[in-house]
Every structure is written in structure tokens, then in C-alpha cells.
UniProtKB/TrEMBL annotation:
Its main location: cytoplasm. Belongs to the sirtuin family. Class III subfamily. This is NAD-dependent protein deacylase. GO terms for molecular function: histone deacetylase activity, NAD-dependent; NAD+ binding; protein-malonyllysine demalonylase activity; protein-succinyllysine desuccinylase activity; zinc ion binding. NAD(+) binds at residues 12-31, 91-94, 175-177, 201-203, 219. The keyword Endoplasmic reticulum does not apply. Binds 1 zinc ion per subunit. InterPro entries: DHS-like_NAD/FAD-binding_dom, NAD-dep_sirtuin_deacylases, Sirtuin, Sirtuin_cat_small_dom_sf, Sirtuin_class_III, Ssirtuin_cat_dom. It comes from the Bacteria. 2 residues (Tyr-56 and Arg-59) present in a large hydrophobic pocket are probably involved in substrate specificity. They are important for desuccinylation activity, but dispensable for deacetylation activity. NAD-dependent lysine deacetylase and desuccinylase that specifically removes acetyl and succinyl groups on target proteins. Modulates the activities of several proteins which are inactive in their acylated form.
Length: 233
């Protein structure tokens, strides 16, 4: 472990599961409650914007009342104490990494905190329920959508993610099923770059075979233990 200076961490819904936020593909997950095609694609938004806006208003209200769990707090501690390069690339739209104390966080699938104006492209903090069609702070048009990346849309800041991976000595994947690309391909990109790879997940994921090491268990136990290990190495 002594030769680790730069760390890239990828997180998915599993890191927030113990905060009470539904994952997508576990039993009872979000995609069992709602069809992706109805609420998480540009076509769905064009077809029935009210259904999509209500879904994200509901998601946002559910997320807002949740609290960071020990996994978020351990990653916040690592961000504060780590002297090398550090980046949490999260697929999650919740802000629990930030509320757990992390600062170097990149939301590749957007965040529930922002809305995006389809008229003027301005992104703004999302306060009122979007179903009420609040005016865009930029242009005043009532054309706001959630600033989250839907299926078929490009994730944010992929170049910055790949640049961080090229400098990394360690890539750690936490709480993701490895079902959705390009996030799911990052472990292979890391391996191709000679980066050491570690998975912390409740169950085996679709990417488990690509990791040098996989530790299975709840994030609230595995992540604090790993943070202690890496800080005391
Ligand atoms: N601790 C650790 N891992 C957990 C826990 C837990 N308490 N609970 C669940 N997991 C793991 C599951 O084993 C699973 O591998 O978290 C993963 C959750 O997988 P998904 O529900 O597929 O969520 P995610 O991988 O984040 O989905 C990726 O798909 O729908 C899109 O945009 C959405 O960002 C999301 C993307």
C-alpha cells in the first residue's frame, strides 16, 4: 500500500442504501417500482413531462430527508486527510457524499440539487417542485428539467474522470452493480492503465471478476474499515 498516492473512487446506489435510499436493481429497487422508459429517458420527458417531473420531485423529497451513513462519513474523512490526489466519481444524484464531509466529488449522472433549463441551458439550484413549472432563474422560461443524466444521454465530465484515472494508483468501486456504462467500464480502463483495483460491495457485481480484490459486505462496515487501513498504511 506504501506506493499509493492518487486514489479514484467510484460509488453507486449501494453506498447510500443504508441511508434509506432505494438502489435501482436490488429486490424492490427503483426499477421494480417504475419503468425506466417511463421516467428516465428524454423520450419519456417529451411524452409525459408531468410524470417525469413528479417522479423526480418525489425522488428529491425522499433523498432530502435522508442522512449520510458511516460509509459517506469515512470517505469524507479520507478526503480531508488524504495528501495525494483524490476524487469520488459518483453515479448517485444524492448529496450524501458532500453532507458526509467529502469535497472532491464528481456527479457523473448529475445531481438532484440542480435543475437544467431546456430553453437557455442554464443550470440552477432546484428549490421549488418542478411539477409547478417554476421560472428559470436565467431566462424566466418555465422550461426546467432535473439536471440528472437519463438513459441515452452522455454522462458528465468523462474526460476529467479518465484524466484522474490515468494518474491513479488505486481505483476503488463501492456499491455499484456494474450494469451501466461508461461507469461500469472504469475498472477495465483502470486495469489497462496498470492501476490497482478494489471492489467493496454487498454482493458480487457484474464487474467483480475485473477487480484485483473484492470485499463483500455492507458499505457502512467495509468502507470505514478500508479507510482506516489506507490511512494507517
Ligand atoms: N452496501 C454495499 N453495497 C450495496 C449495499 C450496501 N448496503 N446495498 C446494495 N449494494 C450493492 C448491490 O449489491 C448492487 O451491486 O449496490 C449495487 C446497486 O446496484 P444498482 O441498484 O444497479 O445501482 P447502481 O450500480 O448505482 O446503478 C447505476 O444505473 O439506473 C442507473 O443512473 C442510475 O446511477 C444509476 C446507474
Amino acid at each position: 500500500m506504501a506506493d499509493i498516492r492518487n486514489i479514484v473512487i467510484l460509488t453507486g446506489a449501494g453506498v447510500s442504501a443504508e441511508s434509506g435510499i432505494d438502489t435501482f436493481r436490488d429486490a424492490g429497487g427503483l426499477w421494480e417500482q417504475h419503468r425506466v422508459e417511463d421516467v428516465a429517458t428524454p423520450e419519456a420527458f417529451a411524452r409525459d413531462p408531468d410524470l417525469v417531473l413528479r417522479f423526480y420531485d418525489m425522488r428529491r423529497a425522499a433523498i432530502q430527508e435522508k442522512q449520510p451513513n458511516p460509509a459517506h462519513e469515512a470517505l469524507g474523512r479520507l478526503d480531508r486527510e488524504w495528501l495525494g490526489e483524490f476524487l469520488i466519481v459518483t453515479q448517485n444524484v444524492d448529496d450524501l457524499h458532500e453532507r458526509g464531509g467529502a469535497r472532491r466529488v464528481l456527479h457523473m449522472h448529475g445531481t438532484h440539487l440542480n435543475a437544467w433549463c431546456t430553453a437557455c441551458d442554464v443550470r440552477s439550484r432546484w428549490t421549488a417542485p418542478l411539477i409547478d413549472r417554476p421560472p428559470c432563474p436565467g431566462c424566466g422560461e418555465r422550461a426546467l428539467r432535473p439536471d440528472v443524466v437519463w438513459f441515452g444521454e452522455m454522462p458528465y465530465e468523462m474526460e476529467r474522470i479518465y484524466a484522474a484515472l490515468r494518474q491513479a494508483d488505486l481505483f476503488v468501486s463501492i456499491g455499484t452493480s456494474g450494469a451501466v456504462y461508461p461507469a461500469a467500464g472504469l475498472v477495465r480502463d483502470a486495469r489497462d492503465l496498470g492501476v490497482r483495483t478494489l471492489e467493496l460491495n454487498l454482493d458480487r457485481s457484474q464487474g467483480s471478476a475485473w477487480f484485483h480484490e473484492s470485499r463483500l459486505g455492507p458499505a457502512s462496515a467495509l468502507v470505514p474499515a478500508w479507510v482506516n487501513e489506507i490511512l494507517e498504511r
